[in-house]
C-alpha cells in the first residue's frame, strides 16, 4: 500500500501542476489524492502504528490521521470521480449552476458523516447505506466518460488512454470497497492494489506516448519554447555580427569596384561583382531567418476569423493546380487577434500542405467551436510523415524538403510561436500515406471570442474550389 499511496499522490501532483486552471485536471487530481488517502490510512494502520507504543500520544495522533484519511477516501473517491466525469464531458450550465453543483453534491456526504456511526477500524463507514449513494456516482461518471465524443482522430488516442487509466481502477474499487463490503465481505480493498498499479502503468505509458490530459503537451511545449528562445537570441546575435561584416565587405567591395572600373580591369571587375553578389545573398538569407525568429510583438484587433481564413485561402489559389479545396468555416466569430501574424501562420501551413500534395489531392480547411476553444484545422491528403518526422515538425530549422535553399524549416515553428503569443497551441498529427493535419487551437477567453448572428446563408458556409 505504501507504493499505491506514493504513486497516487505523485499522479495527483503531476496532473495538478500540468494545467492548474483546468477543471478536468483539478478534479482528476482530487480523485487520485482521495485514492491515495485510502492507501495512506492502510499504511498507517498496518505498518506504522503497530510499531509504536500502545496508547502513546504519537500513536493516538496517527490514529486520528488514519481515520480522517480513510473517511476522505470512502467519501472522496465517488465524489471526485463524478466531478471529474462532469468536467471531462462538460454539460452546458450557467456560471452560477456550475458553481453550485460541487456544493450540492457535498450535502449527502455531510448527511452520512453526521447521521451514521463514527469511524472504527472494523467498519469505517456504514457500507449498507453508503453503497446506495456511491454506486450512482460511479455509474453516472463512467457513462459520462465513455460517452464523450472526440472531435478529431488525433485526440481519440488520448481519450482512450484516459479511459484505460481511470475507469478500470475506479470501477474495481467500487466493487471491492463498496459493493462487497455492503454484503459483509470486509477487507476486500486489499485487492485494489493490482488494478491501481495497472492504471498507474497506463498513465506512465500514455504520458510518454500520446499524452495524458495535456501533461505531455506541457513538456513538449516547454521544450519548444526554450528552443525558440535560444534560436531567437542566437539568430539576433548572428544577424548583427554578419550584417556588420557584410557591410565592411560591401564598403571595400565598392572601392575595389571603382578601382577596377577606373583602371579598366574587366576580370577584376567580374570578381568584385561576384563577391558583392555573394555578400548581398548572405545578407538576404540571414535577414529572412532573423525575421522569422525574432520576438513577435502581437497587436490584437477585432477580426472576423472566418473572413481572415477565407482571404488566406484565396491568396493561395494560384498554387492549387488540381487540388480540390473543401472549406467549412462558419461566419460570425469575432476575435481579438493579430490578423497579420495569424494570417501568415495559416498561410505557412496551407503552403506546406499544397507542396505536400504535388498539385493533386484534397485540402480541407475548417473552423470548429467547442465550449472553451476555437480550432482551425488544415488537413491535406499528401504523403504524410512518420512519428519521428511529425514529432520534430515544430523544431526550428527541421524540414523534410530537401534541395530547396529557400526553405529554412521555420514555417511551422513560426506558426507555433504565433499561437503561443495568442495563448493557444499548434498541434500536428500525421500518418504516412494518410496526409497531415495541423490544428490551431485558440482558447476563447484568451482572444475574447464572440459569436455574432449572421445571415443563415453565410453561417456554416461550405465551399469547394
Verbal overview:
The structure is a single chain. Helices cover 61% and strands 12% of the residues. It has 14 helices and nine strands. β6 and β7 form a beta hairpin. The chain starts with a helix and ends with a strand.
Which descriptors would you attach to this protein?
465 residues, alpha+beta, Heat Shock Protein 90, 3 domains, 3-stranded antiparallel β-sheet, 61% helix, disordered C terminus
The largest sheet is: 6 strands, mixed
Q: Using DSSP, what is the number of strands?
A: 9
> For the residues shown, what is the average pLDDT?
79
The secondary structure category is alpha+beta
- Gyration radius, rounded: 30 Å
Measured by DSSP, the beta-strand proportion falls in 5-15%
List the strand order in the largest sheet. Answer: 6-7-5-4-2-9
Order of helices and strands: HHHHHHHHHHEHEEHEEHHEEEE
Transmembrane segments: 67-88, 100-119, 125-146, 158-181, 193-219
Catalytic activity: ATP + protein L-histidine = ADP + protein N-phospho-L-histidine
Keywords: ATP-binding, Kinase, Membrane, Nucleotide-binding, Transferase, Transmembrane, Transmembrane helix, Two-component regulatory system
EC number: 2.7.13.3
Amino acid at each position: 500500500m505504501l507504493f499505491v499511496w506514493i504513486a497516487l499522490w505523485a499522479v495527483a501532483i503531476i496532473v495538478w501542476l500540468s494545467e492548474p486552471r483546468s477543471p478536468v485536471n483539478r478534479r482528476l487530481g482530487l480523485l487520485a489524492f482521495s485514492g491515495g488517502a485510502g492507501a495512506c490510512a492502510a499504511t498507517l494502520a498496518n505498518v506504522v502504528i503497530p510499531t509504536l507504543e500502545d496508547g502513546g500520544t504519537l500513536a493516538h495522533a496517527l490514529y486520528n490521521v488514519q481515520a480522517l484519511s480513510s473517511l476522505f477516501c470512502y467519501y472522496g473517491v465517488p465524489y471526485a470521480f463524478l466531478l471529474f466525469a462532469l468536467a471531462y464531458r462538460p454539460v452546458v450550465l450557467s456560471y452560477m449552476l456550475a458553481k453550485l453543483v460541487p456544493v450540492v453534491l457535498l450535502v449527502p456526504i455531510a448527511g452520512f458523516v453526521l447521521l451514521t456511526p463514527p469511524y472504527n477500524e472494523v467498519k469505517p463507514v456504514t457500507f449498507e447505506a453508503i453503497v446506495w449513494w456511491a454506486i450512482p456516482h460511479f455509474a453516472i461518471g463512467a457513462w459520462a466518460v465513455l460517452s464523450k465524443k472526440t472531435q478529431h482522430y488525433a485526440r481519440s488516442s488520448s481519450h482512450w488512454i484516459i479511459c484505460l487509466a481511470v475507469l478500470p481502477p475506479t470501477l474495481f474499487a467500487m466493487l471491492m470497497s463498496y459493493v462487497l463490503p455492503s454484503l459483509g465481505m470486509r477487507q476486500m480493498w486489499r485487492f485494489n492494489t493490482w488494478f491501481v498499479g495497472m492504471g498507474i502503468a497506463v498513465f506512465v505509458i500514455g504520458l510518454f506516448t500520446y499524452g495524458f490530459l495535456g501533461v505531455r503537451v506541457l513538456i513538449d511545449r516547454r521544450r519548444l519554447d526554450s528552443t525558440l528562445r535560444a534560436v531567437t537570441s542566437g539568430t539576433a546575435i548572428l544577424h548583427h555580427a554578419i550584417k556588420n561584416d557584410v557591410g565592411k565587405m560591401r564598403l571595400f567591395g565598392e572601392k575595389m569596384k571603382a578601382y577596377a572600373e577606373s583602371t579598366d580591369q574587366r576580370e577584376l571587375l567580374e570578381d568584385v561583382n561576384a563577391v558583392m553578389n555573394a555578400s548581398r545573398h548572405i545578407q538576404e538569407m540571414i535577414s529572412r531567418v532573423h525575421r522569422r525568429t525574432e520576438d513577435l510583438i502581437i497587436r490584437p484587433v477585432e477580426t472576423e476569423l472566418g473572413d481572415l481564413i477565407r482571404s488566406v485561402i484565396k491568396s493561395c489559389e494560384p498554387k492549387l493546380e488540381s487540388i480540390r479545396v473543401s472549406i467549412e468555416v462558419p461566419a460570425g466569430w469575432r476575435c481579438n487577434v493579430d490578423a497579420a501574424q495569424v494570417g501568415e501562420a495559416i498561410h505557412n501551413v496551407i503552403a506546406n500542405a499544397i507542396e505536400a500534395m504535388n498539385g493533386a489531392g484534397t485540402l480541407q480547411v475548417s473552423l470548429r467551436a467547442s465550449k472553451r476553444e476555437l480550432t482551425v484545422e488544415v488537413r491535406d491528403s499528401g504523403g504524410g510523415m512518420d512519428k519521428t518526422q511529425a514529432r520534430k515538425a515544430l523544431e526550428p530549422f527541421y524540414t523534410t524538403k530537401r534541395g530547396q535553399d529557400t526553405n529554412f524549416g521555420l514555417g511551422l515553428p513560426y506558426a507555433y510561436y504565433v499561437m503561443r503569443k495568442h495563448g493557444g497551441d499548434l498541434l500536428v498529427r500525421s500518418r504516412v500515406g494518410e496526409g497531415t493535419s495541423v490544428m490551431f487551437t485558440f482558447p476563447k477567453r484568451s482572444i475574447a471570442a464572440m459569436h455574432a448572428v449572421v445571415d443563415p446563408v453565410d453561417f456554416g458556409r461550405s465551399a469547394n474550389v
